[in-house]
Structure formats: structure tokens, C-alpha cells
């Protein structure tokens, strides 16, 4: 099988399924075929091959790709062709993957169902009447449908893990700082992380290996050694200490809870031990997150002014109108809601009551995790309280939509790594297990997921 065959096959699948699923926003067919031909030539010589040689990939459309349209699923950037590659894209090129195209998402990564894309929604490959989750819904659906070998997503409050859970694939949100975000369009800078979405845990380890590491172009990327993730996949969990927060089993769909308890039984059979614990500040996480993430978003998105990037409103009367009209026309309703909420929370007179308070809550949540990890190796629970819900069922109710993230948001606030791995089905829909690890200990969560898988 040549790389060209592999890439051709991916485009055949995209043509066959994507009219119904809607995972892609931009295809890179010509570029991909040229790259595949180059890699096939290389196969003939005996040159050394990159770690991910020949694998066809898709990238969430909030990572910039030189010369390939990058929209963040927003009308604002519907005409934006970046002049450089994000560091993760450079690294994927160095590992000799083939870029198939850019994947649909909630506009500027704000959402949990992919219905906030300003182009079209994504549908769940397991049941086309249901959402794939979000905001990396295109990235998860593409892997589930075989429209890419693997993809990259971004996760601010759950956007890799929750769609991975709804689509029955593996999604990893690494430790904050593990992967460079240079070239990732910022949503909430103290939370955003890039990570792989793959069919299985071994692939997740491979992709993480290829994209992790310090990057001088991103001052928040950590100068921490990158271990050999593949050698971590030993199948061994004997003696492993697992904490199960009781807050993560409350208010969960009974079949989801049953699937997670079954995993604990399996892991126990392999020699792991588990204990119920409490992360007492869990109930404040969603409120704190929506204040902090929206505050940061309101600041980050001020760069979209109709002058520097993307679409500019026609015939503005003066400079202020240019900003006003471009932003009114460019941003969709959810993005505007967050900018308004964030601007309010940061305004003088309200800053102490909202933003500062939320920061203090964040510290308490981080301490819950720190204390638990003094005694345990991993924390385990469901990724989301339910399975994928029907399209349209929550879109008019932002608060219900926000509460879907109750199990992924605390992890994001604490900055620790977590992985969602499929752990069975409820009424024919995939259920995801969330495995949470110590800072920079992706190896252990990959090992546990691999042993279970
Ligand atoms: N659903 C969450 C939100 O809307 C998380 C999004 C994300 O992780 N990008 O903010």
C-alpha cells in the first residue's frame, strides 16, 4: 500500500460520508496528493522516515496552516489565509503526515455540540440525529467515520474529551504547557491546550510523542523533558492507586455510571485498587470557568477589529463604525454572549466580585487535585454526564449546554492532563471514561487507558 493509496482512500471516504457528517470545512486535496507522491518517492530510497510517516490527518480549524484557509468556523475569518504554520502543524509535517484538510468546530471553540459553527453543524457518525459534541466535533467525528487516520483538537474546558466521548474515540488533553500553542487562535489563554484525537490509545501516544515539547515561540510551553510515551504502554496496572471522586458519580446517567463502575471492576481484576474520594469544590467549577474563560476571550478576541484579520465591514462611516460593524457582522451569537459576559466581569467595580473571585475558586479546585494526587496515581470517572444528545435539543438553553462540561472543566482549571477512552455503550451510543493524571504525567494515564482498552 502506498501513501498515495492511503490518502486517496481517505478522500473517497470524505466524499462518501462528509455530505452527511459535515466534519470538514476546507479540503487540501491537491496539496495532500502532492505530499503523498513525495513520500512515496522517499519510500523507494532508504531515507529514514518520520514518526507518523504517511498518515492522513485533519486539523481543527483554529490552528493556522500556511496558505490553507483557517476560519475558526467564524464568518469573521471566512477569507483568512494564514502566512505561517502553527508549531503543531510544523511538527506534523516533520513527522511526515499528510494534511487532508481543516475540521469543523464551534465558532472560536465556544460550545459543546458543534452547533455554534457559523458554516454548518457536524453530525455524530453513530447517530446522525445527534451532536458529535464540541467544540472539536469535526475532529472527533472525522476519526469515528474514518475520514482521517487521526486529528488534532483543542481543549479549553473539555473540547477534546467530550466530543471524543460522544463519538467513541480516544481524546487526550495534555498538561497545560506540554504542547506549544503557537499558531492556535486563542480562546482562553490560561486554559487552551492542543491534543490528539485517535482511534486507540497507542496512536494517542505516538501523536503526543510527535507534537509535545518546549517551543521558544510559546512562552507558556513548559521546558520539561518529553518521556518515551510508547514505552509507557506496558499493560501493567498492578498496585495502581485510583481515586474516584463521589462528585463525579452524582447526577450521571445511570448507564454511564454503570459503564464506569464496570471499568473499575476490570482494573481491580488487573490488580489496581480504588477508593472513593471527594473533590469538594467541583460544584463551583462551571461558574468559575465561564467567568474566567469569557474574560480571557473578551480580551483575546479584541484583535478581531476588521483591520488586521479576516472580513471588514463595507462602507463604515468612521473608524469606530468600522470596528463596530465588522464585529457585529463577523461574530455569531455565542461568541458575542461570551464577549459581553467577559467584558462585564472584567470591568472596574465588578472585577473583584467576579473575575478575582473566580480566580480564587480556581486555586481551591487546583488544591483539591493536588491533595488527591498526594495519595493516588490517577483520578477516574465519566467524561460527560450523558451520551450524545439530539441536535437542537439544548441550543436555546446555554446554561444546560454549559453544564455538560461539569466533569471536564475542573481538570482544565487545574491544568492537569486527562484522557477520554471509550468504555462501552448506553442505548447504542458510546460512553467515555475520563482518566486524569498528575501534571506532566501523561505516561501514567496512557498506560492505564491502554491496559483497560
Ligand atoms: N464547552 C466549553 C465551552 O463552551 C468548552 C469549550 C472548549 O473546551 N473549547 O467553553
From TrEMBL:
Signal peptide: none annotated. Residues 5-446 form the Amidase domain. PROSITE patterns: AMIDASES. It comes from the Bacteria. This is Glutamyl-tRNA(Gln) amidotransferase subunit A. The keyword Kinase does not apply. InterPro entries: Amidase, Amidase_CS, Amidase_dom, AS_sf, GatA. Allows the formation of correctly charged Gln-tRNA(Gln) through the transamidation of misacylated Glu-tRNA(Gln) in organisms which lack glutaminyl-tRNA synthetase. The reaction takes place in the presence of glutamine and ATP through an activated gamma-phospho-Glu-tRNA(Gln). Heterotrimer of A, B and C subunits. Gene3D superfamilies: Amidase signature (AS) domain (3.90.1300.10). Its EC number is 6.3.5.7. It comes from Paenibacillus puldeungensis. Keywords: ATP-binding, Ligase, Nucleotide-binding, Protein biosynthesis. It catalyses: L-glutamyl-tRNA(Gln) + L-glutamine + ATP + H2O = L-glutaminyl-tRNA(Gln) + L-glutamate + ADP + phosphate + H(+).
